[in-house]
Amino acid sequence: MRWVWVWWWAWWWAWWWEWRGPRLLPLLLLTALLLSSTTTVSAALLRPVLAHGSCEVGWFHCGNNSTFCVEQRFLCNGEEDCPDGHDELNCVPTEGDGSVIKEILNKPQRRPEELRSCSLKQVPLFCLCRIETRIHCKNARLTSVPQDIDTNVTGLLLGNNTIVLTPDSFTKYPNLTILHLQNNGLTSIPPGVFSPLTNLKKLFLGENHLWSVERSDAALQGLRSVSNLRHLDLSHDTVTQLDPILDLLPGLTSLWLNFNKVTLRGRIVSPNARTLKDLFLENNLVEELTQDSLRGFTGLEALYLRHNKIRVIHPGAFKDLDHLLDLELNFNMIHEIHRGTFLGLTSLVNLDLEGNPLVVVTSNTFQSLPHLDSLGLNAMELSSDQLVNISTDLILVNHTPIITHAHFKRFRYCGYLPHVPNCWPKTDGVSSFEHLLVRLELRVAVWVVAAATLVGNLTVLGGRVLSRDDNKILSLFIRNLAVADLLTGFYLVVVAVKDLEFRSEYHTHAYYWMSSWQCTLTGVLAMTSAEVSVLILSFMSVERWVCITWPLAAPKLSLEGAKFSLACIWCLGLTIAIIPVVYYKGQQRFYGTNGLCFPLHLDDPWVPGWLYSALVFVGLNQVGVVVILMSYTGMFCSIRRTRANTPLTLGDREFAMRFFFIVFTDCLCWTPIIILRIMALADILITPKLYAYVVVVLLPINSALNPFLYTFTTTKFRSQVRRFLTGHGICRWPPRRDSDSEATRTSFFRSATCRLTNGRELLHLHNCTSQAVEDTTVAEVSRISLLKDDSVKAETKL
Question: What mean pLDDT, rounded, does the chain reach?
Fold first, then answer.
C-alpha cells in the first residue's frame, strides 16, 4: 500500500501549493503518477487444498503429498514458489526424446581443464588435442589425413579442409570412434577406406558433394566397410533417396539428412529401415505424407520433418510407427488435421505442429494419441472452434488432462486448457489465468488514473461551459482537448470494470472478450482519444508559435475556422482508429492482441497490423511530439528576445516552468512509447510486464495532466476559484488583482489588440484608450503590445 500513501500525500500537497506555489502542482502530480507505476514482481500465492484434497481450477498441487496449491502461471516460471521447489520439476518433457537427444542431454558436463587435457604423445603442431584422445584439425588447410598422430587417438575432427581420401588414409588409427569430414569437397568415398575403423560409431560427412543421380551408389560404396556405424550425417548435400543409404549400413540407428532434396516419393523400402531409431529430414522437399512415405520404419523413435513443404497427411501415413515417441512437423504447410491423421502413433509423447497454417482441426483428432504428454502449437492463430476441439480431445473424464505441457502463441489460448499444469505463455504481461489485470497495483492504478482523468477533464468542461469566457476560440480548443482526454478516462473505466467482471475466472472469458466487438470498440475509443489529443496539441502549438513569432503578420483564426479545424482533427483521429477494424478482419483482430484491447504490440511486434501500428505510434505520433517540441522552443526563443528589449520582468521563472512542463509531459508520454515500439520492432526483448504499465499509467499521463497544465494552474482559474470560495464565505484571501485575462497576442486572443494601419494608427493599450503614435514601426508595435500589463504573463498563452 506504499504507493497509495504516496498518492494521498501528493494530492494533499498539490492542493496546498495551489495557493502557495502553483508552479509545483504539475511536478507533484507527475511524481505521484511515476511512483504509482513502479514495476513490482508479484510473489506466488499458495492456497491450501480443498476439503476433498484437490485444487481449484487453474491451481495445482505442490507435490503429490503437499497440502498447498500453486497457480498455473507460477509453474515452470524459473522460480521456486512451492516450499520444496516442486513447481520447477519436470518442466521440460523428456519422455519423448529420441536416443540422439537423450545422448546429447545426458552428456557429462566437463570443466575447462578437462576439455583441454590430453593423453596423446604425438599431436601435429597445426592441431589441438581435446578431451584426452581427440584431435581437432579444422581449417588447417589439409589435403590428406595427417599420419603423425598418436595411434591411440579416438576422435578426428578434420572439417573445413580439402582432404582427398585414399584406401590407406586411416590404417594407423583403428581406435577411432568419431570422425568428422564435413566440408572437404569430397565427391566419393573409396571402397575399403573405412575398413580399418572397426570401432567407428559416428561419421560426419555433411557439406560435401557425395550424391548425384548418376553415381549415387558408386560414390557411397565406401560406406559398406563400416560395419559398426551407428550415426551418419549427410546434411547439406543433394540426397534425394534415403533407402540406398540404409542398404549400405545394416546397423545404422541415426541418420541425418537435413538440407537435402528428399521427397519420400517412390521409395523402394530397405529392409534395414526397421533398425533406424532417429531420422532427421529437416529442410527437404517433402510435400505430402502417404501410406508409403514412412513404410518400414517400425523401430523409429524420433522423426524430424521441420521446414518441409508438407501440405497433406493422408490417413495411415504413420501406421508403421507404433514406437515413435517424438514427431516434429514444425513450419510446414499443413492446413488440416483430422481423426485419421495420427492413427498408429500409440506411443507418441511429443507432438510439435508449430508454425503450420492450420485451418481445420476436427474433433477426435488427438484421441488416437493415448500417451501424448507435450503439444506444440506455437506461432499459430487458432479459432475458437479449433480450440474447443483441441481442449475436448485433450481432457479426459473427471477433468484429467492427457498432456502436461502445451505451447501456444497467445496466452488467452491457455484458457481452453485450465487443467494443463505447464501451459505457455504464462502471461501476456497484462493478464493471468484468473485475472484480466494480473497485479494488485495495476488494479488499483487503473481506477486512480481513470478517476484523475475523468474528474480533471469534467471539471474543465463544466468550468468552461458555465463561465463566460472572453475568448471563445481558446475555450473551444480547450473543451475539445478535454473531451479527447475524457475518452481515455472512459477507456480505463471499461478496463477496470471488465477486470472486476472477470475476476478469478478470466480464462473462461479471455478469448471471447478479446475477439468481441466490445473489445474492438474499447480499442477504437482509446486510439481516437490518443490521436485526437496529439493532433489538437500539435495544432495549438503551431498556431501559437506562428502568432507569437509574427503577431501582426499572421492571419487571424476565426471561430468558424477553429470549428472547421477541430472537425477535421476529429474526423482524422476517428478514421485512424477505424481503418484497422475494416482492413484486418482475420481471426486475430487488430485491437484483440491482449485484454487491454490497445494495439501497442510491444509483447508481439509482428502480429497482423504491426505495420499500421508502427506507422501510427512511431510515425504520426513521433512527428506530433517533434512539432510540439519545436513550436514551444520557437515560442520560448521569440518571447525571450522580446523581453530582452524591455525593462519589465514578467515572471520569467514561472513562464519557463510552464514551458518546461508542457513539453516535458508530452515527451514523457510519447517518447518512451515510441522508443519501446522501435525496440520491439528491432527484436529487442521487452519484458511483458511492462506492457500493462505503459497502457494503464504512462499513456494516460497527458490526459490526466492536461487539465492542470492548460486550466487549473492558470492565474485566471485560481482567481475564479478564489472569488467563488470567498463569495460563499468558505475561505478568505487578501484581495488580489485578477491579472490573468486570457488576452494574448495569438490569434486565439487577437481581440485584445487593435489594428495598425499604415504604421500610424491608434493602439488600444492598457485600458484601450487612444494614443497617437507618430513614428511607430511594425517591430515597435509588436514590442509595445507585449507590455500591455506587467501582470499579463506570457504563460497565459500556454
Answer: 77
Which letter does DSSP use for residue 588 in this model? S
- Cα 456 to Cα 477: distance, rounded to the nearest angstrom: 16
Beta bridge partners of 350: 326, 374
CB 224 within 8 A of CB 196: no
Q: Are 710 and 519 in contact (CB under 8 A)?
A: no
Residue 34 CB burial class (10 angstroms; 0-12, 13-18, ≥19): middle
| Residue in this structure with the C-alpha cell 514523457, named with its chain if needed | 668
| DSSP string across 263-301 | ---S----GGGGG--EEE-TTS---EE-TTTTTT-TT--
Task: Please report how the helices 2-20 and 25-36 are oriented relative to each other, as an axis angle in degrees rounded to 10.
Answer: 170
Whether the link from the prior residue into 425 is cis, omega within 30° of 0, is: yes
Q: What are phi and psi of 474, to 5 degrees?
A: -60, -45
Q: Are 103 and 178 in contact (CB under 8 A)?
A: no
Name 128's bridge partners. 136
**pLDDT reading at 787 higher than 50:** no
Q: Beta-carbon neighbour count of residue 385 at 10 Å?
A: 12
Single-letter amino acid, residue 453: T
Banded model confidence at residue 385, pLDDT cuts 50, 70, 90: confident
Strands 68-71 and 46-48, sheet pairing: antiparallel
186 and 233 Cβ atoms separated by less than 8 Å: no
Give buried/exposed letters for 677-690 (b at 16+ CB in 10 A, else e).
beebbeeeebebbb
The DSSP H or E segment spanning 439 is none
| Residue 722: HSE in the Cβ half-sphere, 13 Å Cα cutoff | 17
Please say if the pLDDT value at position 758 is more than 90. no
638-672 burial, b for 16+ CB within 10 Å, e for fewer? bbeebbeeeeeebbeebbbbbbebbbbbbebbbee
Backbone angles phi, psi at 96, to 5 degrees: -95, 5
d(CA 444, CA 451): 11
CB of 92 closer than 8 Å to CB of 102: no
Tens of pLDDT along 523-538? 999 999 989 988 988 8
* Grid cell for residue 271: 529392409
Centre a 10 Å sphere on the Cβ of residue 497 and count the other Cβ atoms it contains.
14
Please, are residues 240 and 260 in contact by the beta-carbon 8 Å criterion?
A: yes
Q: Which position has the higher pLDDT, 651 or 204?
A: 204
Amino acid 401: pLDDT: 63
DSSP 377-423: ETT----HHHHHHHHHHHB-GGG-BS-SEEEESSGGGGGG-TT-SEE
CB atoms within 10 A of CB 416: 25
Looking only at the bridges linking them, the beta strands covering 405-408 and 360-361 are unpaired
Tell me the pLDDT tens digit for each residue of 491-518: 999 999 999 998 877 877 777 788 788 9
Name the H helices within 54-106. 99-105
Lowest mean pLDDT among 325-339, 411-425, 524-538, 752-766: 752-766
pTM for the model stands at 0.63
Cα separation of 138 and 708, whole Å?
Answer: 70
With bands split at pLDDT 50, 70 and 90, how would you rate the model's confidence at 59? Answer: confident
Does pLDDT of 356 surpass 70? yes
Give the other-Cβ count within 10 Å of 564's Cβ: 11
- The set of residues, in sequence order, having a beta carbon less than 8 Å from that of 455 and lying 6+ positions away, is none
The whole-angstrom separation of Cα 677 and Cα 688 is 13
Alpha carbon distance 546, 631 (integer Å): 8
Closest CA to 692 of 440, 522, 468, 507: 440
* Phi/psi at 304 (5° precision): -115, 110
- 397 vs 679, higher pLDDT: 679
